[in-house]
Amino acid sequence: MDDINAWVWWLIGAAGLGIPLVVTAMPEFGMLSVGAVAGAVAAGLGGGVVVQTLVFVVVSVALIAVVRPIATRHRTRRPELATGIEALKGKQAIVLERVDSSGAGRVKLGGEIWSARSLDGGQAYEVGQEVDVVDIDGATAIVM
Question: What SS3 class is residue 59?
Answer without folding.
Answer: helix
